[in-house]
Amino acid sequence: MPRQLITLKLACLSGVIFLAGCADMGGLAPFGQLRSEQTVAATASLAGVKPAPWPTNDWWRGLGDESLDTLIREAVKENPDMAAADARMRLAAAQAGSAEAALYPTLDAKASFPGTPFPDDFPKPFAGYTSAKQINLTAGYVFDLWGGQRAAWEAALGQQRATEVDGEAARLTLSTRVAQAYSDLAYAFASHDVAIADLDRAQKLLDLTRQRVDAGIDSLALLRQAESTQASAEQKKAQTAQRIESVRMQLAALLGQGPDRGLTIERPRALNAAELSVPENLPAELLGRRPDIVAARWRVEATRRNIDAAKAQFFPNINLTAVFGVMALKGADLLESRSRFGLVTPAISLPIFDGGRLRSNLAGRDADYDLAVAQYNKTLIGAFNEVAENLSQLRSLQTQLASQQRALSSAQQAWELSTQRYRNGVGGYLEVLVLQQALHQAEDRLAEIQNRRIDASINLVRALGGGYRADTPIALSAASADVQATTKEN
């Protein structure tokens, strides 16, 4: 090759690189700062509780009802939300596969045998022949000189991994919702028991009042009051019975089934509340135990790689296209050596003036990164607060339960004494009525506290990740550290 031609090509290449500098990315950088677990003050809030192991994948077995295991497994299999999560995972995998395909060469085959003849008055050799027939292979390859296509693939892969972890988060959310609905069903049955007991007391009081009225001891007004109290107790019983049916339907919906499925759900056993305890290594390991934190971290990594892909567009790149094939007017001539042809076409693309498109694209990717970082920080802070809040609730409810049990015992004794006094003609009706209402409230309050303890136990399990554990915890990579350093400099 003549030296002048080589010199000319080098000069052109230098000019290309120089002109590429016209697409300037100066002044653009993300601002988001990733928080670490050490920066979230939670030591004092998590102190004073005994250590415990992390929840297992079948954490709900600790509640003490085997039927719940069947319900949760059915929900995971049949609930439409899980089907949607699976579809999102498959979509993300397809998008990652499409991005990966851009890294490899392409090869296309094409055969053309047109049947349109040239008119007879066309000059030879075309006159009387049909259009040229051809068979060719076209190969193409984009040289990823600056790693932009690989960065785009890694960004799609990060989104795929985040979506996969979202599926684990969806399973955790669904299992806790089923467990809480099951606990609500137990509470509905307990409330119904309280209503039945209250109706029984109201009926006995009504019978006693009738006897006293018939004996001329009490007035007819007190009888009407006793009848009203008994009717109110019947109404309460009907309300609690309807609440049972309502919760059963809610459970059926969570199972992905119709309302008839709810009718087959039996009364839950007495569920066990969790002890006031958390894992010893909570601050350090929570980041890898909460699926929402892991998914948020993957999205930070994905948006960081999108920044790299956007930056690569500012630099020149080389595309290579090669076409090989045969072409002839006669089909028989396609096998002749003279019909063969080949063409190799290199092309250089470079940004020079684009009206700010590349800068706007990079600025958008920087904003995506900042949004992902903000969401990660929000999720991280929220996770520690959820653990601390549920521990605080369990601590308070433990104290409330002991107090309410004493209150219920006292209310029971007071009502029995007042009823005995009323039967013996010593006490008054209003005294019995007031103490009956107090006893009903004490029983109802105890059932409520017990239900809230179960809910707080389930929420604590969810706050601890529900048995999830990241296979490969995502550490702050060197590239992410570079982004953080760039942010601080700007």
Report on the architecture of this protein.
The chain is α+β, with helices and mostly antiparallel strands and 490 residues long. It has one domain: Outer membrane efflux proteins (OEP) (Up-down Bundle). The chain has helices spanning 3-20, 66-78, 80-101, 148-214, 220-254, 259-263, 282-289, 291-312, 357-423, 429-463, 478-489, and strands spanning 50-51, 106-112, 133-143, 277-278, 317-328, 340-349. The protein has a four-stranded antiparallel beta sheet with strand order 2-3-5-6, with no helix packed on it. α4 runs antiparallel to α5, α4 runs antiparallel to α10 (429-463) and α8 (291-312) runs antiparallel to α9 (357-423). The longest helix has 67 residues, at 148-214. The chain starts with a helix and ends with a helix. Mean pLDDT is 84; it is low at 5-11 and 475-490.
Q: What is the mean predicted local confidence, pLDDT? A: 84
- In the sheet with the most strands, the strands line up as 2-3-5-6
Largest sheet entry? 4 strands, antiparallel
Give the end-to-end Cα distance, rounded to a whole number of Å: 49 Å
- Over the alpha carbons, how many angstroms does the gyration radius reach? 38 Å
> How many helices in DSSP terms?
11
Q: Kindly estimate the percentage of residues that lie in beta strands according to DSSP.
A: 5-15%
CATH class reads Mainly Alpha
Work out the count of structural domains. 1
Order of helices and strands: HEHHEEHHHEHHEEHHH
Helical proportion?
55-70%
The CATH superfamily appears as Outer membrane efflux proteins (OEP)
